[in-house]
Design brief:
Length: 314
Amino acid sequence: MHRVAVLAVPAVKPFDLSMPSTLFGAAEPGGRPGYEVTVCTAVPGVVAASGGIDVVIRHGLEAVGAADTVVVPSTGSRHDAEPAALDALREAAASGKRITSICSGAFVLAQAGLLDGRVATTHWGLAEELRSAFPSVRVDADRLFAEDGPVLTGAGSAAGIDLCLHLIDRDYGAAVANEAARAAVVTPVRPGGQAQFVRTPLPARTDSSLDGARVWALGHLDRPISLGDLAARAGVSVRTLTRRFTAETGVTPFEWLLQQRLLRARELLETTELTVDHVAARSGLGSGESLRQHLNRRIGMTPAAYRRAFARRP
């Protein structure tokens, strides 16, 4: 079982503090819990939180030493985190643990020196502050989360959901990550490169004709889909489709289609014994060689290696 330590650095944001437990707790590869999550802090006891809420945390920094992954949620201590917490993070990084942050938690990683020379992100409203306070950090504010080796940083609070799902994906595969998303009733896995700020976010219910086009595309991933096909389904011009699609989703139609095809291919690799060529055909990626290239470019694995790592047989 993968052990996760959620390191609370006061003042904490309750939503971000509880989010990892919710998402990781919903990951059940093979029907069994995939993670053991421990919330900890430098001084156990009552910990100040935002919104006039106090939380009680029972575990100390020993949980960081015992963890495989350490998550630092949002904090009000963007420039004055507890020295003991910073030391624990440095020791964890030195021992090869995976270190992650959510929103302003990136400031804690930066204070510990763990972001020096690395690409990192945080909430877009805090990006300039992070860049100014820690000039050695390569801040990229236009993404949901950034991954630079064993250090990952998430953008705003909701992007922490995407980051947690990405970690589950890395550990147990796309099917488990998507099941965790469904169990938590959140959006399925989104790539970290997607823009933080979408100017026209989709409302919960909408009459947008693009919704129907996207649903249609998901049902026909095994066949070629052109911009003209999507535009015809939406009843708009190709130019209008491209502009509105990018505004609503944060990615171009072609990039969105590629993301969906790769997700379908990964689920087929995990849950079936189809050949690589058949997986490529059913996901609309054409040939097995095309699937190999795209999968290796996106996650650094061949289809065979991915299947060995994540396949789950009935």
